[in-house]
């Protein structure tokens, strides 16, 4: 394992199917009950693959060669800090009712403070999640990205806090849905299942509408985050001119996270999910929100292994602000498959003839 003089490791995302053995796990793997299953620093073996797949893990981060001040994966940092509180709060809601949800405001505040520390960075999505943690991780991801976009859009801090709370609770209505379709895709639902699943927004609003501590901004997000600009959304088929900015932001972030993690849909790579959002700008999603989203989210997150148009393999090292498809790469192998022996960086903002063709995931 190569280290720089400060002994700093570089995170690299890898599919468990591509594990060759002897890689070093860079982040702890936890169970749904917050039990440590594999600790970072462990040397991975090929035979671990089956067990990881049983846990619903498709990718993980391993330690790779040296790096200088690598940026943290935004999603991982925030999830690590907030997931326990969100999970405990939602569990209390199931047993004690909506009065237990007010503490979610503290989580919203933590997320905002985290993102205010580095408002200039690109939002990095890890793409690594266990099935067991999908419900609360989805809510945290949507809230974090919603706050990030709202900050870029210069929305008032007070409204950003309410947007964060609404995003954290946007899917609370699923707790009232009787249909169990966790392993199915939306196109596989029966008509009855589709109607039942769409009712989660109504259930959520019904549960929360009389809570005085919850703002109207947050309540509207719970009720209307599946509305679309052209009126094809639900439950009220409200068009864009009737939607508020918080609902529009959460609509984009919710759809994006669902595509990345394959929630009721085919899983997409991050850049493919971004193309879906951008391709539906003005039709399904608000064009102003999409414009900010497209400049603020890394299409190729740090640690992603990519293939260039020249057939070389590289790993994304850091982001260039406002240039989501033109990060800085650390080159791994040349077009002939030969490993680079020295550290070679390519800044795609400067190397105009070089671009990313696809990711190896």
What does this structure look like?
The protein has helices at residues 48-54, 74-96, 104-117, 134-152, 157-168, 191-198, 200-208, 216-224, 245-261, 270-279, 287-296, and strands spanning 9-15, 29-30, 36-38, 59-66, 305-308, 313-320, 323-333, 345-347, 356-359. The two termini are 22 Å apart. Strands 8-7-6-5-9 form a 5-stranded antiparallel beta sheet. A two-stranded antiparallel sheet has the order 1-4. With 361 residues, it is an alpha+beta fold. β5 and β6 form a beta hairpin. The protein contains 11 helices and 9 strands. Residues 1-9 and 66-70 have low confidence and may be disordered. The chain has 3 domains: 9-66, Molybdopterin biosynthesis moea protein, domain 2 (Alpha-Beta Complex); 74-296, Hypothetical protein af1432; 305-359, no CATH class. The longest helix has 23 residues, at 74-96.
C-alpha Rg (nearest Å) = 21 Å
Number of strands: 9
Whole-number count of domains: 3
Main beta-sheet strand count, sense and barrel state:
5 strands, antiparallel
Helix tally equals 11
CATH architecture annotation of the largest domain: Orthogonal Bundle
Distance between the termini: 22 Å
The CATH homologous superfamily name of the largest domain equals Hypothetical protein af1432
């Amino acid at each position: 394992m190569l280290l720089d003089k400060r002994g700093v490791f570089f995170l690299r995302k890898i599919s468990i199917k591509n594990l060759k053995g002897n890689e070093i796990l860079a982040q702890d793997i936890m169970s749904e009950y917050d039990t440590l299953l594999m600790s970072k620093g462990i040397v991975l073996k090929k035979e671990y693959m089956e067990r990881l797949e049983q846990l619903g893990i498709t990718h993980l981060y391993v330690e790779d060669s040296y790096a200088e001040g690598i940026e943290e994966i935004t999603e991982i940092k925030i999830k690590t800090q907030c997931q326990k509180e969100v999970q405990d709060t939602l569990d209390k809601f199931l047993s004690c009712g909506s009065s237990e949800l007010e503490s979610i405001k503290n989580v919203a505040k933590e997320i905002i403070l985290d993102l205010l520390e580095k408002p200039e960075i690109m939002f990095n999505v890890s793409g690594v999640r266990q099935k067991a943690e999908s419900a609360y991780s989805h809510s945290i991801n949507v809230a974090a990205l919603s706050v990030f976009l709202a900050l870029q859009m210069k929305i008032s801090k007070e409204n950003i806090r309410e947007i964060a709370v609404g995003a954290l609770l946007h899917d609370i209505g699923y707790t009232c849905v009787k249909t169990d379709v966790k392993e199915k895709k939306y196109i596989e639902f029966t008509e009855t299942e589709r109607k039942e699943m769409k009712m989660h927004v109504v259930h959520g609003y019904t549960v929360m509408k009389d809570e005085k501590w919850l703002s109207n901004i947050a309540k509207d997000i719970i009720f209307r985050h599946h509305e679309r600009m052209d009126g094809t959304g639900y439950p009220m088929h409200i068009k864009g001119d009737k939607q508020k900015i918080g609902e529009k932001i959460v609509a984009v972030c919710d759809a994006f996270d669902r595509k990345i993690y394959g929630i009721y849909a085919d899983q997409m790579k991050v850049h493919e999910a971004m193309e879906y959002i951008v391709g539906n700008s003005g039709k399904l999603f608000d064009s102003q929100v999409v414009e900010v989203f497209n400049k603020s989210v890394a299409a190729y997150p740090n640690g992603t292994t990519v293939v260039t148009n020249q057939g070389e393999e590289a790993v994304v090292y850091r982001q260039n602000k406002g240039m989501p498809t033109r990060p800085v790469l650390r080159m791994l192998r040349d077009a002939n498959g030969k490993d680079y022996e020295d550290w070679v960086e390519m800044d795609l903002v400067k190397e105009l003839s070089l671009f990313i063709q696809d990711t190896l995931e």
